[in-house]
Design a protein that fits this description.
Largest sheet: 3 strands, mixed
Number of helices: 16
Number of strands: 9
Structural class: mainly alpha
Oligomer: single chain
Strand order of the largest sheet: 7-8-9
Strand content: 5-15%
Mean pLDDT: 86
Bound molecules: zinc ion
């Protein structure tokens, strides 16, 4: 039987149905969809358009998403508590993460404790295999395996069917909004959460960037950029502003190599736009070609980073921007329509392509 890759419209329809009608008692299925979307961006599909995804990679995503959510909501009011993610008993994953938080203050620290991290990932992976992985695609007691097939579970991995990774990539923003909107509604609807809810802070509590933690990157970036703004190349007189090179609103992950130091003014003008290809080239030379210099400094401060992933995310963002005819920011209020020239800078879609051996010395200019 030959398989026709699913088209974007069919994909959206099925996803919409799943979100509207799926039988969700816990929020795991939202985390699972979020994870599949993220992993589709971060890895290159096979030639037939499919993508193998390990259950432990999904588990690591779960831990990332639920980490902030396992903390008490509004603890300063005395009545704050950890929000329920399940209609009955608290979700197992939340309890496991809350236990990990007793020992490790932050996610990077938890990740660095290899043995305990491995135990946590294995536990979460077990929960994922036990329930959401097989229940996700059931709507009104009817199974529609349009994302992956239960029969294809092998070596603890699933295979996203041809066309599915491409659909997640093309529709990423839309999918994420839909999934997170449904997630938020689910939490609001759990009776046990009602005493605490009913205000607009919930969305940023669940999904907001912990921006304070970006301050830890500032010193490394300042040294690495030779005290200059990545965009205008002028000296940074004040503290400068840690900027997401690919904006947070496009892809909400804080990874070291995606962070640059810029003037407050440059950062404010760039907003959520893509930086035009000359800026991209500067970022590529400064942050990707010299990835390992940065990585060593990030490691010594236990700051999260993954240059291959940052490059993959940039590649995805520029590819989407080019397809959509996006405006790319130059400086002040000047923009240029993004053409294909960014490809000369970032190269092919080989998502693992990051310069590994550092050049011998960086000549400051
Ligand atoms: Zn500047």
């Amino acid at each position: 039987m030959t398989l026709t890759p699913i088209g974007e419209l069919a994909f959206l329809r099925k996803l919409q149905r799943l979100l509207a009608e799926g039988d969700f008692s816990a929020t795991y299925k939202f985390a699972l969809l979020n994870a599949l979307a993220d992993l589709s961006l971060e890895h290159e599909p096979a030639p037939d358009g499919s993508l193998r995804v390990s259950v432990s990679a999904i588990a690591e995503k779960f831990i990332e998403y639920y980490w902030p959510q396992a903390r008490p909501y509004r603890p300063l009011e005395g009545t704050g508590f950890v929000l329920h993610q399940n209609a009955g008993r608290q979700a197992t994953v939340i309890s496991a993460i809350a236990a990990a938080q007793y020992m490790h203050a932050t996610l990077p620290v938890a990740r660095a404790a290899e043995l305990r991290w491995h135990t946590l990932v294995t536990k979460v992976a077990g929960t994922i295999k036990g329930m959401p992985l097989w229940k996700l695609q059931t709507v009104a007691s009817e199974r529609d395996e349009f994302l992956y097939r239960e029969a294809e579970l092998a070596d603890d991995s699933i295979r996203l069917l041809p066309g599915v990774p491409a659909a997640f990539r093309a529709l990423y923003g839309l999918v994420l909004d839909a999934v997170r909107g449904a997630w938020l509604r689910q939490i609001t609807n759990i009776a046990a959460n009602r005493p605490l809810l009913g205000n607009s802070e919930l969305a940023s509590f669940l999904f907001g960037s912990e921006r304070a933690s970006l301050d830890g990157f500032r010193g490394v970036l300042r040294d690495h950029q030779d005290g200059r703004c990545l965009y205008c190349r002028k000296d940074l007189r004040g503290a400068g502003c840690v900027d997401h090179f690919v904006a947070w609103s496009r892809y909400p992950v804080d990874l070291g190599h995606n962070l640059v130091l810029a003037h407050d003014g440059c950062n404010a003008k760039k907003r959520d736009f893509l930086a035009y290809p000359a800026h991209l080239e500067r970022w590529q030379k400064s942050h990707l070609e010299r990835a390992s210099e940065l990585a060593q400094r990030f490691d010594s401060l236990a700051l999260p980073h993954d240059p291959a992933r940052s490059r993959a995310i940039a590649w995805w963002a520029y590819e989407q921007g080019e397809a959509a005819g996006a405006h790319a920011w130059i400086d002040a209020n000047r923009f240029v329509r993004l053409d294909a020239s960014w490809r000369n800078v970032l190269g092919t879609g080989d998502l693992r392509r990051v310069a590994e051996p550092p050049p011998p010395e960086y000549p400051p200019r």
